[in-house]
Specification:
Radius of gyration: 27 Å
Distance between the termini: 83 Å
Helix content: 10-25%
Number of strands: 16
Number of helices: 9
Bound molecules: S-adenosylmethionine
Low-confidence stretches: none
Largest sheet: 7 strands, mixed
Strand order of the largest sheet: 12-11-10-13-14-16-15
Length: 330
């Protein structure tokens, strides 16, 4: 259909009401005219000028919201879509819409538990597909991981970037609870010597694989085990990592305070801690700061450089990070 520009929207609506619009093709604007593609020229209402000309195919993507008629909440991790729905019927409705959309998705999972146990892994209901293994890209790094076997949250991408952006080349960075390496690998990419420790053997295997994938294997050491044994092994031997770290990442909210004695053993003469905590909003930073001071003072001078709210964790509870510089006192 050729119509004047001024009559464009009104004509498009009239053609849509008549059911003759071709949704797979673009509307083309040329000088003062609009060319509106129609699927069936014979059914065009009287009074419109039908012309023949080529118009390009439409490139817009169908989203799950287009299919559902409402905006569902979901996260993407590689080719996995993650839902957090309590109602199984609604979860299936959203999963079907995800599949019908143009998202490149192999698997749809619904959260079936909170993260739990020492390894912080959660249960999943697999709604679509079968594999929980995927490859996720974040700030120029690529992570292979199995969601059913390791902890990984795409929500922390910005926070990980905030921390790893502070890393200088030649620093010694140690992530005490490293998972598949999302702090370790960007740190190594910036030129640091990076060590990641984790209790979960599957996570440590992925950390090694991810170091290879990202071309930093020579600067990454992935260690399986309880980080408390890194400085004081059960046999009493002292490890090479005593007084080693220029930077320590402690992303084990809820229980990081129990590891501050180990952090003090690992910290070099000057060290920055990134200490994660989950606390009531009324005093989200106080308990962490007090615990760090109790562990490091007076051997170290302690100064809090940043008090950062990472995200809201639950009503009135916040996930926070304290960036703290500790310097061995004279
Ligand atoms: C909240 S996850 C953080 C993982 C990673 N830093 C990230 O951001 O994806 C905590 C990790 O600590 C590990 N972990 C728990 N207790 C540990 C311990 N005593 N020593 C070493 N790792 C531990 C768990 O296996 C889990 O992978």
């Amino acid at each position: 259909m050729r119509v004047s520009r001024e009559a464009g929207e009104e004509s498009r609506r009239a053609l849509a009401d008549a059911g003759v619009l071709d949704d797979d093709r673009e509307i083309v604007v040329e000088d003062d005219a609009l060319f509106i593609p129609v699927a069936n020229p014979d059914a065009v209402p009287a009074g419109f000028e039908v012309v023949e000309r080529a118009v390009p195919a439409r490139e817009t993507q169908t989203t799950p919201a287009d299919v559902l008629g409402f905006e569902p909440s979901y996260e993407r991790l590689g080719d996995v879509v993650i839902l957090d729905e309590d109602d199984p019927a609604r979860a299936h409705e959203i999963a079907d819409a995800v599949v019908a959309s143009d998202l490149p998705v192999a698997t749809v999972l619904n959260r079936a538990s909170k993260v739990k146990g020492e390894l912080r892994v959660r249960d999943w209901d697999v709604l679509v597909g079968s594999s929980t293994v995927t490859t996720h890209r974040e700030y120029g790094c690529e992570y292979r991981l199995d969601l059913a076997a390791v902890y990984f949250s795409p929500r922390l991408a910005t926070e990980r970037h905030r921390v790893s952006s502070q890393v200088d080349a030649d620093e010694c960075v140690l992530d005490m609870f490293a998972g598949v390496g999302p702090f370790v690998i960007p740190s190594a990419k910036r030129g640091a010597e990076a060590v990641g420790v984790d209790l979960n053997p599957v996570a440590v295997e992925y950390m090694r694989e991810n170091a290879q994938r990202n071309g930093v294997a020579e600067r990454v050491t992935a260690i399986e085990g309880d980080v408390r044994n890194l400085v004081a092994s059960p046999s009493g031997e002292r490890s090479e990592y005593g007084d080693w770290a220029d930077r320590l990442v402690m992303n084990l909210p809820h229980s990081a305070d129990e590891f501050l004695g180990t952090a003090r053993e690992l910290a070099g003469d000057e060290c920055v801690l990134h200490y994660y905590d989950i606390q009531h909003e009324d005093d989200a930073f106080g308990p962490g700061e007090r615990a760090i001071r109790a562990a490091f003072e007076p051997t170290y001078d302690v100064s809090v450089e940043t008090r950062h709210v990472v995200r809201s964790y639950a009503p009135h509870e916040e996930n926070v990070c304290l960036d703290v510089r500790v310097e061995r006192a004279e």
